């Protein structure tokens, strides 16, 4: 076997890992595939020489290609999949393609892809490579042309923006999180019985007019009406992830990781849902603070699934 054949064999063995890295950095399976292919072209033209850790080398090349794309995307101020013009187009894109489902390994991975888009390119790279995939800050610093300490600080700042403070969690907020998770599950399954158990009799659903056609009312009242409408749009719920929205449990509708709307869920003292406000106005979405619940991180197998990774997410730096 020639040297290039051996290198190609090793690269193909690492391809699933490299696609996962590129996907978490870019939020698009198609973009991830393009980046991995570009990384192979770079690797095949280089001389690995005495490289001992080929996987680490491949990962660094892939991350550098993804970083270049993130920076170019920021300069163009564009999203990976374009901007749907209204809520109806969410329905056609609500189910992620099979490749995305493979890369989005669990609910926390899905949530991370949504909130990572709020970070700068360097923060996103530092966080993903260290907290999700376990690369040392020395390697990340070299990639970003920063010192290890600066790379560590970037990851710390990203962590502060991404995850909720576990100290601030209360039994009430954890209970509300469970209710929102149950509502999303019932919405996905179109389970009217479960929805009616979760909704207060006088529940109100409001929606930004930008999201719906003129024949859809901006506001509807009553558990039965809200449950029936929710069942009609179960396909949209498949693109939903549970996040904290301005510190309160809610749902982000983000097909393929692209935020299109958030559902602010109002829960009463009776532990039932009294209001659902569906927000799609770009200005309101831009100012909403989205974080991943700390409890979800504790119970998740993010990235490589190591306990060290989850612990890292729950503290401010290492």
Automatic annotation (TrEMBL):
GO biological process: DNA-templated transcription initiation
GO MF, one annotated term: sigma factor activity
InterPro entries linked: ECF_Sigma-70_Domain, NTF2-like_dom_sf, RNA_pol_sigma-70_dom, RNA_pol_sigma70_r2, RNA_pol_sigma70_r4_t2, RNA_pol_sigma_r2, RNA_pol_sigma_r3/r4-like, WH-like_DNA-bd_sf
Entry-linked Gene3D superfamilies: 1.10.1740.10, 3.10.450.50, Winged helix-like DNA-binding domain superfamily/Winged helix DNA-binding domain
A Pfam entry, by short name: Sigma70_r2
Keyword DNA-binding annotated: yes
Entry keywords, A to Z: DNA-binding, DNA-directed RNA polymerase, Sigma factor, Transcription, Transcription regulation
A GO CC term attached to the entry: DNA-directed RNA polymerase complex
Subunit: Interacts transiently with the RNA polymerase catalytic core formed by RpoA, RpoB, RpoC and RpoZ (2 alpha, 1 beta, 1 beta' and 1 omega subunit) to form the RNA polymerase holoenzyme that can initiate transcription.
The family this protein is said to belong to: Belongs to the sigma-70 factor family. ECF subfamily.
Protein name: DNA-directed RNA polymerase sigma-70 factor
Gene name tied to this protein: rpoE_2
């Amino acid at each position: 076997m020639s040297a290039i054949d051996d290198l190609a064999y090793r690269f193909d063995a690492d391809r699933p890992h490299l696609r996962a890295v590129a996907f978490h950095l870019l939020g698009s399976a198609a973009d991830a595939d393009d980046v991995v292919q570009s990384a192979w072209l770079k690797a095949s033209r280089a001389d690995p020489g005495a490289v001992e850790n080929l996987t680490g080398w491949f990962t660094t090349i892939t991350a550098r290609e993804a970083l270049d794309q993130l920076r170019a995307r920021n300069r163009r101020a564009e999203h990976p999949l374009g901007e749907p013009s209204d809520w109806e187009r969410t329905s056609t894109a609500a189910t992620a393609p099979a490749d995305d489902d493979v890369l989005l390994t669990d609910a926390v991975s899905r949530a991370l892809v949504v909130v990572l888009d709020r970070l700068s390119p360097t923060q996103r790279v530092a966080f993903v490579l260290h907290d999700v995939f376990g690369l040392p800050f020395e390697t990340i610093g070299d990639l970003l042309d920063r010192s290890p300490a600066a790379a560590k600080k970037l990851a710390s700042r990203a962590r502060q923006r991404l995850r909720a403070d576990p100290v601030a969690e209360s039994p009430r907020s954890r209970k509300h999180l469970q209710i929102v998770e149950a509502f999303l599950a019932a919405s996905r399954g179109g389970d009217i019985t479960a929805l009616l158990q979760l909704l207060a009799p006088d529940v109100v659903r409001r929606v930004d007019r930008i999201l719906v056609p003129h024949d859809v009312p901006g506001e509807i009242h009553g558990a039965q009406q809200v449950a029936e409408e929710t069942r009609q749009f179960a396909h949209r719920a498949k693109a939903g992830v549970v996040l904290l929205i301005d510190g309160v449990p809610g749902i982000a509708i983000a097909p393929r990781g692209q935020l299109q709307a958030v559902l602010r869920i109002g829960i009463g003292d009776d532990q039932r849902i009294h209001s659902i406000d569906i927000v799609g106005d770009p200005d309101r979405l831009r100012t909403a603070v989205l974080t991943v619940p700390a409890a979800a991180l504790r119970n998740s197998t993010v990235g490589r699934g190591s306990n060290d990774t989850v612990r890292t997410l729950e503290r401010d730096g290492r």
